[in-house]
Amino acid sequence: MIKWKNRSEFWITGAKLADPESRKIRAGSIHINNGRIEEVVWKKSIETDLEIFDAEGYLVAPGFIDIHTHLRDPGFEDKEIIATGTAAAAAGGYTSIACMANTNPAIDEPSVVRYILDKNREAGETRLYVIAAVTKGLDGKEINEFHLLKEAGAIALSDDGNFITNSKVMRSALEYAGLLGLPIISHCEDPDLAGDGLMNEGYYSTKLGFSGIPAVSEEIAVARDIALAKLTGSRLHIAHVSTAGSVELIREAKKKGIPVTAEVTPHHLTMDDSLLQEYDRNLKVNPPLRSLEDIKALKKALKNGTVDCIATDHAPHTEIDKQVEFNFAPPGMIGLQTAFSHLYTELVLSGELELIDLVRMMTSAPAKTLGIPGGTLETGVQADLVVIDLDAEWIFNGKVNRSKSFNTPLADRSFNGHVQGTFLAGKWKQMV
Amino acid sequence: MQFKHKNLLGLEELSSGEIELILDTADNFKEVSERVIKKVPALRGITIANLFYEPSTRTKISFELAEKRLSADIVNFSKATSSVTKGESLRDTAENIEAMKVDIVVMRHGSSGAHKFLSEFLNASIVNAGDGQHEHPTQALLDMLTLRQRWGTLMGKKVTIIGDIMHSRVARSNIWGLTKMGVKVTICGPPTMMPAEVASMGEGGVKVEYDLRKAIADADAINILRIQLERQKSKLFPSFREYFAVFGISSDILKNVQKDCIIMHPGPMNRGVEISQEVADGERSVILPQVTNGVAVRMAVLFLIAGGRSGETKIRKG
Fold first, then answer.
1. DSSP 3-state assignment of B108?
2. Does position B232 have pLDDT exceeding 80, yes or no?
3. Rounded to whole angstroms, how far apart are CA atoms B200 and B182?
4. In this predicted complex, what is the ipTM?
């Protein structure tokens, strides 16, 4: 356990520093003054009269950034509130998160943006960015007051959970958002093709007796939105990419210079549809867990840059919500507290992904994707950092869970790499 | 051989030996229904709850008769479910019924996996009388019993299943059961009703054939599935007359099949849609013997699940 009394100027020494921009992990020290990074020195120790935060044996990186979180507040406070959602994020090493608009009321009014930001100032454990709704009440019909929403603090727009089926509405939204420099985050799913599907269409949906959600229901939607991004020249971000076909479309679009980015979730990188054979409602997510071939394509896309960053799609639901027949259970799983450890254990330790790339995909890459600050060790930036014990093993159970909900297929799983705490603007938050 | 399962959730989880045991037991019980006094005391003192969350006529009656002929005490609960109406949860209903000391729950439910879900909470044994599009194990068992009575053995025989495979729990249970027993299974139906990668289902896979004539050419038995009326509304096929023209079983199309080929249907039939009047009532049809066998098979399943002997039965394993 790290003992530390907050002060405004100090050094962090002894750490292995992960710098996503230069892609290096080396011994280094960080001088922090007044909540900002004053200087990074690539030396293990430093001669100084200032207090020293001894990070010997730990990895220190820019604090993680999640651009896809459902905080459920306002409207679904039984599932999550801003205090608990950001606490789960901080415990997972995040210092900034962006919350989705499908609250009740939806984030389609400047007042709702302000309410959320006020709430976070009161009770938040991380910085919070607000993603406002594209259409009123997420109905896919009428676009919102993007300018006023931006003025209130919104940094991006999304009807996440719903695909905007009307192509004219999506075109207008992209054109109008482009004027304001706001990216539109699209939940790509053709609702007619997805139909009453409950899981990935394939051998396992056939075996389990569920209508399937075909991969093309996502790919058709991705293709349309790429075409509209090309037409409008506006920034499009594809949420939770889940299929090999979508990866291919995004790769081609990027080659042509179309302004599209994409994210992938930890669960779509690590879990396939065969896991649903026990009908575990915590594995019901949208988009659904796909095939092993899709996972392979997603991992490759993460490495070659087709997919820009990792985002959790943290989606809390209560035990009561999930303790029903599979088809009645709402889709979604929580993910903030486990994202790093889960991927470190499954992808980095297995040799499939370099640690620095995992760090980059959770820091500078998501920051760039949405154009929000953070994710680097540059001089002058806010001192938002995460301190991780890579050798520590820990178990994710109900006792350590900080979210208000515990809908996760990772319950009682053991992980390597344990977040010890974060610095938020130079202020230490002990997490273990 | 002993039957070691607490629940019967599907045929996927049974071995060929266990299926054989159920069929042998059913053969023994068949005679009970022929008696003047159609009753044995095998399940005296055992309480069974029949939970039917979906409409059912023959399966419900068949289970009730099986339970009564085994001298079990029974209670019935029928309720239509929907995702919209939020009444008491399935979990609460089942736990309440169990709190009244029920030993076996027989359930039909519209959600695939509902029985698996319930088994997380119940100590009582659970028998699946149909879950969504997943399994309907006792239907497949009675189908296999009917075939075995005809043929003596199932090994090496050929069965063709025709119709809406995608939405059919009868098809899935039959595929599991028949392939485990060494039957070569062919499935046939419109591509819109053929689920993804279905050829890999069952033990060793099945043959998918879209041409009806080819599909039935060398079949020893044809199992015709019911076409649900709502499937036409959801545009999976253009019209009933077109369905009958392409996939319907008429005496005309049966001219090319094997001499002893038999016709099965799990009911209820849509005469004139998937099966013609003549074929339904024709001499190849074993549709009514299937129904008779249904009672015997369900007696066997309940008897084996209850541990074989009333009095010494200990089924509340916890």
1. strand
2. no
3. 15
4. 0.93
Q: What is the DSSP letter of A209?
A: T
Instruction: Locate A235 and state its tokens.
Output: 């920034």
Option in A201, A206, A325 nearest B117 (CB): A325
Name the one residue in this structure whose structure tokens are 């991780």.
A388
Which of A192, A196, A207 to probe the B interface (max B CBs under 10 A)? A207
Chain A residue nearest residue B202, CA to CA: A207
CA distance B127 to A291: 31
Q: Where are the domains of chain A?
A: 9-60+381-430, 67-370
Cβ contact, residue pair B83, A327, below 8 Å: yes
Q: Chain A 203-222, CB below 8 Å of chain B: which residues?
A: 203, 205-212, 214
What is the assigned CATH class of domain A9-60+381-430? mainly beta
Picking from A311, A282, A279, the residue whose alpha carbon sits closest to that of residue A396 is: A282
Taking contacts as CB-CB distances below 8 angstroms, the residues of chain A near B114 are 325-326
Catalytic residues of A: 313
**pLDDT (tens digit per residue) in B13-64:** 999 999 999 999 999 999 999 999 999 999 999 999 999 999 888 999 999 9
Pair B145, B26: CB distance under 8 Å = yes
Question: Is residue B135 within 8 angstroms of chain A, CB to CB?
Answer: yes
Give the C-alpha separation, B125 to A336, whole Å: 39
- Please give the C-alpha separations between residue B224 and each of B215, B250, B262, in angstroms, as whole numbers: 12, 11, 11
Pairwise CB contact (< 8 Å): B113 & A208? yes
Q: Are the folds of A9-60+381-430 and A67-370 the same?
A: no
- Least Cα distance to A154 among A135, A132, A181 occurs for A132
The CATH code belonging to domain A67-370 is 3.20.20.140
Which tokens hold the place of A97?
A: 């998160």
